[in-house]
Each structure stands twice: as structure tokens, then as C-alpha cells.
Amino acid sequence: MNPQTLIAKRVALELQPGMLVNLGIGIPTQVANHVPAGIDVFFQSENGLIGTGPVPEPGFAHPKLTDAGGQAVSALPGACTFDSAFSFGLMRGGHVDMTVLGGLQVDGSGHLSNWMIPGKMVPGMGGAMDLVTGAKQVVVAMQHTVKGKPKIVSQCSLPLTSVRPVDLIVTELAVIAVVAGRLRLQEVAPGVGVDAVLAATEAVLEVPDHVPTMPI
Amino acid sequence: MKRISLEEAVAAIPDGASLAVGGFVGVGTPERLCDELVRQGRRDLTLITNDTARPGMGVGKLISARCVRKVITSHIGLNPETQQQMHAGSLEVELVPQGSLVERIRCGGFGLGGVLTPTGLGTLAEEGKRRIEVEGKDYLLETALTADFALVHAMYADYSGNLHYLLTARNFNPIVAMAGSRVMATADHIVPVGVISPDDVMTPAAVVDHIVANH
């Protein structure tokens, strides 16, 4: 399986009926393609929409119905729209049950860096700081390494997105939970050993006696 | 007179003015006002807007034409020209978390001095801001933003100036419309009074100074 598909499929297993969920761009967007059967969730687009649906078929897009990247989307039955102050009230006010974001680094305490690389890439934080600060659950969906280097590090060298730790990290190798400021290996991907996860991770991981395989 | 031509509207905006502009990656941006600002060669503008869109789109046109001296925004990642001008030192960029940016504009328009938010605590977004403790929890003080002009785009404007926005083109528009000393609106459709029912008015005519004529 393609690593990004694997990550998206595993994140999708975290969805519970009735949740309000915000998906970031990149791998997180793909989570919407793998919602388990029978699970109805609300997807929020930060630009002012609950009920975001798939990309419309050709000829059925509307230029004023877009996602946070400005791309055309559809709206599902029961969708609603609102202004940006309301949209961010949903996040900071704890009404968003889960946010799934990409990451550049996560550190050994669960802190996320995902909005800039000083001197190289300064896109701006957009809505990421509000989401990580306010959502009830924060899930990071990212590849375990970049160019062979660990992205789960002892301490973030890049600017933090929030001092609030994330709750779960899902990569193509493992599921790692952040519990009381420490990282605990919760699952490994099919065919991946615990040693391989440890070798690709710089931060300290707590490893329980039994580590199950991702149920995907 | 509330109704105004596009040329007159932009002629009223001087070099060096501050503009709060609606839109999200170009969706819901008053595109014709941006085009006319470029055509009339405005300079040294301060832009308050969610993002700088893409080159050739929305407020991205103002960046490309070097109309802007400073931008207060949450995201410039889709416009490489904003980043180039920032690195070259010709454009000042103040990055603000999106939820804090919209609240700062809301405060400006609603007569509040600022807002207390947990967003940005302990990050680069805290730099230069006061940390205030309320009932045992820390917050950042994000201060109000206002502008000389608010430029918004609606789906419908009626002859009196009531505005209705469509779908995700609403975004910052109704917030921005409260924060400008002079408020100028463009609309896809200019319609008789009554077409927008009272419950569907999202920005009341009482706060709109000018409806810009369509072609």
C-alpha cells in the first residue's frame, strides 16, 4: 500500500459517529476518502463550511464553494456555511472534536512544528495554531522520516505550532500516542517491527510488552 | 450618494491608505476593485487580509503590481511573490494566526480594544504581545485592527446597500465590512430592495458607504 494511503486509512479508524472533524491539506485531506462504512461525521473547512463533500463531478463545481486551499468541493445534505469568526470560534471553543494535520516535526513531549522552516519556507500559520490549540483531539498524519531523517525528534528545532501537545501520531510505520507528555508506541504497521520504528525515531518511545499491528 | 462607479471608488483611495479586504484564496474577494487599484497605480498600501491568494488572483494582483508596503495576514504560502518581496525587504509581512486575525478585525469593527486568546502562547506568534492571566489561565492579548477602507464582495447587493454573501465566499467579508472607516462593496448581482429578505441580510446597508456599479 502507498504510505500516504496507509496513513489516511489508519487515521480514518479514529473517526466516531457525529464527530466534527477538520482535515488539513496533504495526507489529512485523504482521510475523507476512507471513512469507515456506517460512520457519519461532519467535515469542517476552515474557510466557512461544515458538511464538506467530495470534489464535484465536471460541470458541477461552483466557484464560491471551495476548501481551505481554494479548490472546488461539494456540500453534503445538511451542510451549512458561516463567516471566519464563527469558523475559528468552532475551533478555539472546543466544538471541533478532532483535527488531523500534517507535520514537519513532533518532539518527545508531543509538541508539533508544522508551519515554517526559518530562512527556507515561510508560508504562515494560517489556521494551524488555532486548530492545535483548540480542537479536542489533535492527530498528526505524516511520513515517519524525511530524506531518511527522523521527524519524531527529541526536541523540535523548528518553531512550534502550539505548546499544547498533540494526542496521536500516525505514520506509515506506527501509531504513537502522547500520554502525559511522553510518547508511547501503540501500533506498528503491517510487516514493520518494533526495532524498525525505534531506528527511524529520534525521540524516546515507551514500548509496551505487546505492540499490536494496525487493524487495516 | 451610495452608488459609485469603479473609477470613482478607487480614486477616493489615496496612496498609503490601509485596506481591509475580504476573501479567502481569492474566493469572495472584490476582484474589480483590486484590478482598478492596480490600473490607477496605487502605492504604499497597508493590506489587512486573510491570505495573499495566488499571483494574478484576488489581492495577489496588488502584491504582483507592488501596490503594497505592508500586509497583515495569516498565510502567504500560495503566493511566491509575497515571499520574494518579503525576503527582498520591499514588503513588510506581519503573520497572525487566522483566528486571531479575524478576531482583531472584529474587535476593530465592534468597538473592542482587543481579545484574549490561547492561540499562539509560547510560539513565535507571542512576540511583542502581552500575556494576561484570567482565572488561572494564560491568554495573549490580540489588539484591534481597523482600516481606512473596507473592500468587500457580495453575491447580492440591493439598491440600498444590504449585502448577502454566498457559500464559502462569505469568509472575512462581513467582519471586514465593520472595520473600515469607509466601506465599499462590489456584488455579482445588484438587485432591488426586498430581493434580499431581512433575515438573509449579512451586512446591513447602514454600514455600507458605497455600492460599486457593475459594468
Automatic annotation (TrEMBL), chain A:
Record's keyword terms, sorted: Transferase
Molecular function as annotated in GO: CoA-transferase activity
InterPro entries: 3-oxoacid_CoA-transf_B, CoA_trans_fam_I, CoA_transf_AS, NagB/RpiA_transferase-like
Stored PROSITE patterns: COA_TRANSF_2
Superkingdom per UniProt: Bacteria
The family this protein is said to belong to: Belongs to the 3-oxoacid CoA-transferase subunit B family.
PANTHER family linked: ACETATE COA-TRANSFERASE SUBUNIT ALPHA (PTHR13707:SF60), KETOACID-COENZYME A TRANSFERASE (PTHR13707)
Name the record gives this protein: 3-oxoacid CoA-transferase subunit B
Source organism of this protein record: Thiohalocapsa marina
Automatic annotation (TrEMBL), chain B:
Gene3D superfamilies registered for this protein in UniProt: Glutaconate Coenzyme A-transferase
MF GO annotations: CoA-transferase activity
NCBIfam families xref list: pcaI_scoA_fam (TIGR02429)
Pfam families: CoA_trans
Similarity comment: Belongs to the 3-oxoacid CoA-transferase subunit A family.
InterPro entries: 3-oxoacid_CoA-transf_A, CoA_trans_fam_I, CoA_transf_BS, NagB/RpiA_transferase-like
Domain of life (superkingdom): Bacteria
The protein's name in its UniProt record: 3-oxoacid CoA-transferase subunit A
Record keywords: Transferase
